[in-house]
Write a structure and sequence with these properties.
Layout: H1 6-17, E1 25-27, E2 46-48, H2 61-75, E3 82-85, E4 90-92, H3 96-105, E5 110-112, E6 115-116, H4 125-128, H5 137-148, E7 166-167, E8 172-175, H6 176-188, H7 190-196, H8 206-212, E9 220-221, E10 225-227, H9 242-249, E11 255-258, E12 261-264, E13 267-269, H10 276-290, E14 306-307
Parallel strand pairs: 1-2, 2-14, 5-9, 10-13
Antiparallel strand pairs: 3-8, 4-13, 5-8, 6-7, 11-12
Helix pairs in contact: 2-6, 9-10
Length: about 300
């Protein structure tokens, strides 16, 4: 799911295709972004979704895009076993071949940062405070004022139908079965969508709440994406720096253990087209760890990406 960084996306496709000819890339490009900026993105099994949604940070439009991508992947005749959601600012810390072997060795596990709310960094206000989307500016402004004086709230227990509220990070790697369960649940419970359309950051709560109240909860492990959050006042992770690279390079398997539990990290966020030198250093680290040589970006010669129909 992306709206910027076409050069980074091209390099991501190259690295994830290395050693794995069967993976595919389903890409939702924000409708507000001209497609021409991404027309040079190419690769085997690269498919841009024709159903493009104008996506706004912290709003349900992010969930709309995610659900659309899941449908695209599950409807593919290739029958993929895992769906891995990353953003256009993520980059892999390993090749696609390594990641495939990791998922095959851990088949059946789900990778999603998830805590029951209230939990660390996830207050109940995310569920109880009413927040209207950008396309309803008057109501959005009015309810933000009400929230500041303790009004404009609702009891999530009356809307979730007995579901315990869960939240976590927006990135994940889920089995085909878990993804299908999410689609079926959303289809069978339209009130859930109506409720979450008036909450903050539903991309960090909708799938988490559905799966947190299911049998899939027991199969959960921490997600596979490294991100360093400066603090609650900043809603965006820090850009990957030399300090982060040193942390990645010092370990053969990049691991972390925090409130979401221990686990290996296979991607990192956040990069951009303005720091491709940092990406090149990650490539060199991958080469060293895996004993390979990733092709240089200008060495990749592949067919244009497809538009999904």
């Amino acid at each position: 799911m992306t709206h910027e960084n076409p050069q980074l996306l091209q390099r991501t496709i190259r690295t994830l295709s290395f050693g794995d000819d069967e993976c595919a890339f389903f890409i939702h490009l924000d409708l507000k972004t001209p497609f021409e900026r991404f027309s040079s993105v190419r690769g085997r099994n690269v498919r841009f979704s024709e159903k493009r949604i104008p996506v706004y940070w912290g709003e349900y439009s992010q969930v709309d895009a995610i659900v659309s991508l899941i449908r695209d992947a599950l409807e593919s005749p290739d029958g993929y076993d895992y769906c891995v959601l990353i953003t256009g600012s993520c980059y892999p810390l390993r090749t696609g071949g390594y990641i495939r072997r990791f998922l095959e060795a851990n088949r059946g596990l789900e990778y999603m940062d998830i805590v029951e709310v209230p939990g660390p960094g996830k207050p109940l206000s995310r569920f109880d405070v009413i927040r209207y989307p950008s396309n309803k500016p008057v109501r959005r402004f009015a309810f933000r004022i009400l929230a500041k004086i303790g009004l404009g709230q609702r009891d999530h227990k009356k809307h979730l139908g007995g579901l315990a509220p869960y939240s976590g990070d927006g990135a994940w790697a889920l089995t085909r079965e878990a993804c299908q369960y999410v689609l079926d649940f959303i289809s069978a419970h339209p009130g859930l969508e109506r409720y979450f359309r008036k909450t903050f950051a539903p991309d960090e709560a909708v799938l988490h709440t559905i799966l947190g109240n299911s049998e899939f909860r027991a199969r959960m492990r921490r997600n596979l994406v490294y991100a360093l959050w400066p603090g609650p006042a900043n809603g965006h992770p820090a850009v990957i720096s030399q300090e982060h690279l040193a942390f990645f390079g010092a370990q053969d398997r990049v691991c972390r253990d925090d409130v979401y539990g221990p686990g290996e990290l296979l991607f990192a966020r956040k990069f951009n087209d303005g720091c491709l030198e940092t990406v090149a250093r990650v490539d060199a680290m991958i080469d060293r760890k895996e004993g390979i040589r990733l092709p240089a970006p200008d060495e990749v010669r592949v067919a244009p990406a497809n538009l999904l129909e």
